[in-house]
Amino acid sequence: MSDTPPIVTRFAPSPTGYLHIGGARTALFNWLFARGRGGRFLLRIEDTDRARSTPEATAAILKGLEWLGLDWDGEPVSQFARKDRHAEVARQMLANGTAYKCFSTPEEIASWREAHPRQPFVSPWRDATDLPDLPHAIRLKAPRNGQTIIADRVQGEVRVANDQLDDMVLLRSDGTPTYMLAVVVDDHDMGVTHVIRGDDHLTNTARQIQIYEAMGWPRPVFAHIPLIHGEDGRKLSKRHGAVGLHEFAALGYPAGAMRNYLARLGWSHGDDELFDDDQARAWFDLDGIGRAPARLDFRKLEHVSAHHLKSMEDSALMQAVADFLGETGQAPLTDAQAARIRAALPALREKARTLPHLLEQARFALVERPVDVDDKAARALDTVSRGMLKSLTAAVQHASWTRDELEQAAKTVAEENGVGLGKLAAPLRAALAGRSATPSVFDMMTALGRDEALARLHDQTELAG
User: Fold this and answer.
1) Number of structural domains, the chain?
2) What EC number(s) is this enzyme filed under (predicted)?
């Protein structure tokens, strides 16, 4: 039996807004790493910024993770709710000599920084023994010599000179803990073995390591992943289009496609571009993460999305359609509409790139009789064409309603009228869908079923006189 402790990762967003696509990828990497090793994936809401943290943002983050299909172990942890524990650790450090009371006022600190613009703040109270009975902060008594070394699984060995780091505040004079202390205490108490996060946190890590050392706690493994840039190579922002996970959901990318695409955004497994969740969990490791920023590429995302739409089980795809309609505030499918779309899925999924694209192709299955024919399609419905539709209606009245038999009947009617099949297909599209651009007319007929298809043809043939 192995003595190796189980893998524990965490995702720790701040609930100050929507779940950014970069945060979603960080959550995915942590989820894949833990799930692929039989480990635990934890969720912590870093809500210590009370002015900016909102319940609505927390709900949006949870909803986003659920949509993406990332499950977590246990209940989400509120960082703010653990403030007493954070303060307790600060006092422990004070007691063991790795922290000290600082009585410097904000004005004194600002004045010192102005006089020493390129130096880390050194508190005059660091080694003081005669202490007043006044409000004070608790500061880390950080080493002044040597280096703090980060053995990062992505960035490699990172060295930071200790004389470039100040004695950071652990507990403010009002008794509230700082973010830097809270993160370390929470990660330690939650048993986190691997901290996988954006490389914008790398500068914090040297300071956080000093807290681990001061408390005699084992360090987790650190892996700082590069940020996501836009296609132009610049830091991702709203000018590049969608940046919130909810926006990608509203654009109609299925969750499985987003997991596949985000996994490949900065990580690779050979040349594999398209894979399912089982493969991702089995393959994902930290060694496959590159150091260069990843670039969001919407064309590649559409390619991945199209692949997943083709490979999804019918029931999963229908659920994705229902979720998309709900996400975008559209009316749910009626039973009849759902039955028609499900019947049409073999044809619809072949060309669909996103869920809206699939629904656009499925418009024929969504409309009800009498079908409203647009101007372009109406031009194919003259008296002669309606006569051919009437002949086709009679020819297929008692057909077995298979695609092959319907197509053969249409070819026969076209030949009898001395025209090619295309001349019959145009009015047939108009009658069935009210449009000139649709899936195959025979796919539509089989999806609509005998009664509905014949009824739509009857609506138009009645106008033939």
Assistant:
1) 4
2) 6.1.1.17
Catalytic residue among 83, 101, 141, 238: 238
Structural domain for 390, as ranges: 375-464
Q: Is 85 in the same domain as 219? A: yes
- Please check whether residue 298 is in contact with residue 241, taking contact to mean a CB–CB distance below 8 angstroms: yes
Residue 310: active-site member: no
Please check whether residues 93 and 34 belong to one and the same domain.
Answer: no
pTM of the model: 0.92
Domain of residue 269, CATH code: 3.40.50.620
If asked whether residues 122 and 250 sit together in one domain, one would say: no
Nearest residue to 255 via CA among 240, 288, 277: 277
Nearest residue to 37 (alpha-carbon basis) of 70, 75, 8: 8
Reading the chain (465 residues) residue by residue, the pLDDT tens digits are 456 789 999 999 999 888 999 999 999 999 999 999 999 999 999 999 888 899 999 999 999 999 999 999 999 999 999 999 999 999 999 999 999 999 999 999 999 999 998 889 989 999 999 999 999 999 999 999 999 999 999 999 999 999 999 999 999 999 999 999 999 999 999 999 999 999 999 989 999 999 999 999 999 999 999 999 988 888 877 666 668 999 999 999 999 999 999 999 999 999 999 999 999 999 999 999 999 999 999 999 999 999 999 999 999 999 999 999 999 999 999 999 999 999 999 999 999 999 999 999 999 999 999 999 999 999 999 999 999 999 999 999 989 999 999 999 999 999 999 999 999 999 999 999 999 999 999 999 999 999 999 999 999 988 654
Owner of token pair 């749910």: 332
- Sheet of 77-78: strands edge to edge? 8-11, 40-45, 77-78
Q: In this structure, are 329 and 260 located in the same domain? A: no
Q: Is beta strand 147-152 parallel, antiparallel or unpaired with respect to 156-161? A: antiparallel
Domain-located, residue 132: yes
CATH number at residue 411: 1.10.10.350
Domain boundary among 320, 341, 366: 366
Residues 200 and 160 in one domain: yes
411 assigned ligand-binding residue: no
β-bridge mates for residue 177, sequence order: 171
